[in-house]
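I have been asked to look over a protein record a colleague put together. This is what I was given:
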Amino acid sequence: MIALRGLALLLLFQAAGEALAHGLALPFPGPVLGLALLLPALGWAPLRQPVAAMADLLLANLSLLFVPVGVGVITHLDLVERDGWRLLLVIVVSTWVGLAVTALVLKALLAHPPEEPPHG
């Protein structure tokens, strides 16, 4: 039951992000804004526990989320045959760009570690 509350919260934050994106005509996808809203909200323990339960459930069943993608590839084998090398190139380049950006962000974050909060 707690995971169901977590799903409801995730959907609520996604809806809030969609509302902001459409209401303010922002150039960002609603789910991205919803995640940006969720991030600081996760500091609140009553919200963190159900979201964590839903995240665990989603991660445990992650392989099921790839079934529609696999079916889509099978139904469009003619496109894969025709443009497969382009798709492969885009996948490889975007993976390397993602890794490079992640490395640069990690390097910048490690260069400036956060200050320790005072113990008291």
Observations:
- Residues 77-111 form the longest helix (35 residues).
- The chain has a mean pLDDT of 91.
- DSSP finds five helices and no strands in the chain.
- Residues 3 and 54 are 4 Å apart (CA to CA).
